[in-house]
Amino acid sequence: MKYAYKLQTIWTKDIKLNSFCFHKMVSLTQIILTALFVRLSAAIPAATGDDPTCGPGLGRCDPGECCSQYGYCDVTPAHCGVGCQPAFGVCKNTPTSTSRPKPSPTPKKLPESPDSTCGQAAGYRCAQGDCCSQYNFCGNTAAHCGAGCQSAFGTCKSPTRSSSKGGPTPAPTSSFPIPDPKLSAPVITTCKSPKQFALTFDDGPTSNVSAILDMLKDNNVKATFFVNGNNFADLTVEPYISILRRAHTEGHQIASHTLTHPDMTKLNAAQMWDEMSQNDVLIRNIIGKSPIYMRPPFGNVNALVLSAMATWGYQVVTWNIDSADWEHNGSPNMIAENDASYAEGMAGHPIPATPFISLQHDFVDNEIGWARHVITRFKKLGYNFVTVGECLGVPASQWYR
User: Fold this and answer.
1) How far is CA 124 from CA 109, 137, 192, 236, in A?
2) Which of 74, 202, 280, 362 is an active site residue?
3) 217-233 pLDDT, tens per residue?
4) Which of 168, 296, 341, 400 has the fewest Cβ atoms nearer than 10 Å?
5) Residues 248, 261, 328, 361: which is the catalytic one?
6) Domains of the chain in sequence order
């Protein structure tokens, strides 16, 4: 009994001692964690401004501010020192005061763009003074420097420069070849030889093109695709990248239809240059070269368009037979209605002596059925299907640059 009592006493004291130690350990842990929390809190700044966050997916700090390793903007040593993110703000080790330093130029960690592309996906920044547009192209126009401009990869402001009189005047756009008014590109509407039929598709590559390519392959026909970089499809993303690459690999001709499908007659020369050069970049990124042949949207041209295209080395191609398929899109009688539109282009011309460059749009519903019908019908009439380059007698090596 004595032993039992002593054991109980020892056990009770032990529990009390362990309990005391446990509470001491918990208290010590709390002190350590609290100290760490205070230390970390000091490194993470309080919110300043409307949106103090920065970094990938969050944007860039205001001019002169540093983006800390924790994704916050300010000018303290905690922001501008160890872990500072130079792609999203200023970075220097010892800010001299809490006042904001002078704005710094665009960060130069990324290489300067060699091909006018910019942004996170491209991995390039624009040249000094150029803006990176929402579509990831460098330039100096309002379209580049205005809404959607990406400040992390270039300048973002309405470009101005001082005139000799001291007043602000619009800054020149990005350097481009000025159209020579003495030059004018001829508008090509037909092939050179009888019995030739150039089947062409505009406005893609849409999701219909994969099935169209299958059908063309089954019928041993090569076509020409006049493509937009940012219209029905976006040539910076899949599946459109792979679709265009496949079309080129299978021997179809790739030609330009501008970047966004504007009416070229309503653009100035700088805007035309942006439409053509930026579309060229997207196409070249996919197939390794850019097209020489182009089709103006809606077939609209004027003296400036033709002068610009000639100066910049493009061949302008329209058509002499139009399916008007976009007007008949969704109609249960689309094929018959398209045939009627074709009949207008064929009227009064000897068949098959008259060659044709046709107009179709690959975004149209049942475009596969219509194209198959055209191939069957015109083969029976004695026509051979060719690309635009072939129908003009130009070897494939000269379709691109």
Assistant:
1) 9, 10, 44, 15
2) 202
3) 999 999 999 999 999 99
4) 168
5) 361
6) 187-398 (3.20.20.370)
Res. 139: pLDDT tops 60:
yes
- What length does the chain have? 401
Task: Select from 175, 150, 170 the least CA-distant residue to 158.
Answer: 170
Whether 325 is catalytic: no
Q: Please choose, from the candidates 259, 219, 147, the residue with its C-alpha nearest in 3D space to the C-alpha of residue 378.
A: 219
Would you tell me the crossing angle of helices 303-311 and 269-287 to the nearest 10 degrees? Answer: 40
C-alpha distances in angstroms, 47 versus 37, 44, 71, 101, 151? 18, 9, 11, 19, 21
SS3 131: strand
Q: Is 79 a catalytic residue?
A: no
The pTM of this model reads 0.62
pLDDT over 70 (residue 45): no
For residues 298 and 343, what is the distance between their CA atoms, to the nearest angstrom? 20
Q: Name the residue among 108, 51, 110, 101 with its Cα closest to residue 80.
A: 101
